Amino acid sequence: VAHLRTVAFNSLLIGELGVVDWDMFHSAGSAAQLHAAARALGGGSIYVSDKPGEHDFALLRQLVLPDGSTLRARHAGRPTIDTLFEDVARDGCSALKVWNANALCGVIGAFNVQGSEWSRRLRRFIKLPALQPAVSLSLRPSLVAEPPFQTGAHAVYAFRSHELRAPVGADEVLSYGRLEAGEWELFTVAPIATLALSRARGEREAVEWAPLGLLDMLNGGGAVVQARGSDAGFAKLRVRGCGAFGMYASRPAADVRVDGRSVASEYDGVRGLLRFELEEMPREGELHDVIVRFI
């Protein structure tokens, strides 16, 4: 797993020169999920070196859409600023954290890669069993090093635990407990927008919302291509892919339409999670048009 540290730090340079290569991995291997998560936010191609008949298709479907395309992030995945000068493989306390950005959402990956290093003598990575502790995990939205994530409020969704926290300030530190050796987590970071809703008798109220993307994809935020609000109380989205789609919303939706057709939605008021299904892929070369009405 120290390979992930090497590629992430190499991307600080290589990412400025070309498309990064995070290498192949075995989808059915013991560390397959960790490697898949790294490829999802790495910004490069995704390819596997499986033996014939030895594939984890459930995992591959979290990386690849039914048409064979991927939700590729915009940049090379790079270490977050708070890990740049940490020895994330041997200091016994630090997680490797990698950031990237999509069209609207950011993504942060956290990986416990403690306990391995490159052996110059053996010319391969070796394990250091005495240095494989659990590490604490914390992050803040501004670790996504692009302007939209440096100010304002955000929604942060954890892929594995399904935990949604919102609203979160750009520099507000969130604690997520500990990562055991070889464990990982991916976080979608979505800037929160506000819709002003007009009510009877001239009264006005507001709803906060942020698209999170496809909840069952490792880089689900990459499915959100466009998002904007309307003074009429609508949120309008253009979206890739199919499957369960999630949004943060401070109130339930009155109606959700996908390509002009009304679809059912579920709202978890405790988490503020609005969920609905994109039942099929859009036509080739096109996007889903989604309208979420709050009044």
Short structural summary:
Keywords: Carbohydrate metabolism. 9% of the residues lie in helices and 38% in strands.
Q: What's the architecture of the largest domain, going by CATH?
A: Sandwich
Q: Which strand order do you get reading across the main beta sheet?
A: 1-2-3-10-7-8
- Mean pLDDT across the residues is 93
The structural domain count equals 2
- The helix/strand class is mainly beta
| Helical percentage | under 10%
- Please describe the biggest sheet, giving its number of strands, its sense, and whether it closes into a barrel: 6 strands, antiparallel
**Total number of helical segments?**
3
Q: Give the topology string: H per helix, E per strand.
A: HHHEEEEEEEEEEEEEEEEEEEE
Give the beta-strand count.
20
- The gyration radius over C-alpha positions equals 20 Å
In angstroms, what separates the terminal alpha carbons? 49 Å
Low-confidence stretches: none
Strand content: 35-45%
Identify the overall geometry: globular
What do we call the CATH homologous superfamily of the largest domain?
A: Golgi alpha-mannosidase II
CATH topology of the largest domain: Immunoglobulin-like
What's the CATH class of the largest domain, please?
Mainly Beta
